[in-house]
Write a structure and sequence with these properties.
The protein is of the alpha+beta class. The chain has two domains: 147 residues, no CATH class; 117 residues, Nuclear Transport Factor 2, Chain: A, CATH 3.10.450. The protein has eight helices and 16 strands. The N and C termini lie far apart (67 Å). Strands 1, 2, 3, 4, 5, 6, 7, 8, 9, 10 and 11 form an eleven-stranded mixed beta sheet that branches. A five-stranded antiparallel beta sheet has the order 12-13-14-15-16. Helix content is 26%, strand content 45%.
Length: 293
């Protein structure tokens, strides 16, 4: 019969083995010579589904190669997972490489040195070969290797020789919203109308506690809170008119897809999140996810 200590130890070991089987692995190096000589030698890999910033209606797999693990679950809960990832402690002050794997198998890379925020971009092709051993909805594994060093405009040479193997984290599919966003879209437009009229008491009732905490300050008057809220909404959302083209509902969360001008002549895709509270949909934030082609 096992002792209580042995049984507990067995449970701990089992949990550690389970955790390690979920953790992604990275290897190899990104190297730079010359005046900016340095290298990035990642040991951890993570992968999650994100919007393609150059074509935001499309989703790609973002692969993060770092020296510390990434919390992909927390990133997926955010409205813009990529922004959440690059602001996690593992990447904020450390060196890392991001790879974006498109559905056609092409790969784009961004190697970043954290202290100086020096970045090196590369794409698979004649100069760099991307080899995929696995590209399934559940797992990505492969390598990103330079065929020859690339010379940067600043004079130094850089090269990729990286390997990765990670399970892909993604949200479960939700219900697609029709154009206009249905009930969440109507609530969003009603919130905007109240915000533009600077009706602070009414606006407060249409915000989640998280957003209300951002917009309201006790040292400001109601009018000043209304002015501040409208300024933030203008920063988060298109300038001028906007159009809700659809979105997705998962449980009590609705993410609306919105098209509008980032500035005159340049269209962009935005996301606005609404949360259901009882029978009401409350505004929970918005962000721009990429320029439209």
């Amino acid at each position: 019969m096992k002792s209580g200590y042995s049984a507990c130890l067995g449970v701990v070991v089992s949990l550690l083995l389970a955790a390690s089987s979920l953790a992604g692995e990275a290897g190899g190096r990104f190297t730079v010579d010359g005046a900016r000589a340095g290298e990035i030698a990642p040991t951890h890999a993570a992968a999650l589904e994100v919007r393609d910033s150059s074509n935001p209606r499309r989703k790609v797999i973002e692969i993060i190669l770092s020296s510390a693990p990434i919390d992909t679950a927390a990133a997926l809960e955010a409205l813009h997972p990529h922004t959440h990832v690059i602001n996690q402690p593992a990447l904020m002050d450390n060196d890392y490489v991001l790879l974006w794997l498109a559905p056609d198998g092409s790969v784009t890379a961004n190697a970043t040195f954290g202290k100086t925020m020096t970045q090196y971009m590369e794409q698979s092709g004649a100069a760099v070969r991307a080899t995929l051993e696995s590209q399934t909805p559940e797992r990505v594994a492969g390598s990103f290797v330079s065929q020859r060093p690339t010379r940067a405009l600043s004079g130094e040479n850089y090269a990729f020789d990286l390997r990765f193997d990670a399970k892909v984290a993604r949200l479960p599919p939700g219900r697609t919203l029709k154009k206009g966003g249905e009930a969440p879209g109507k609530a969003f437009l009603a919130m905007l109308a109240v915000a533009k009229k600077k009706q602070w008491p009414a606006l407060k009732t249409q915000l989640t506690p998280k957003v209300l905490g951002m917009f309201e300050a006790s040292y400001r008057t109601p009018k000043e809170n209304a002015d501040y809220a409208l300024d933030i909404l203008k920063a988060w959302l298109p300038s001028g008119s906007l159009k809700i083209t659809g979105g997705e509902v998962r449980d009590d969360i609705a993410d609306l897809e919105i098209e509008g001008d980032m500035f005159p002549g340049t269209r962009a895709l935005y996301l606005a999140r609404m949360r259901q509270s009882g029978s009401a949909w409350l505004f929970d934030g918005a962000t721009q996810v990429g320029m439209l082609r």
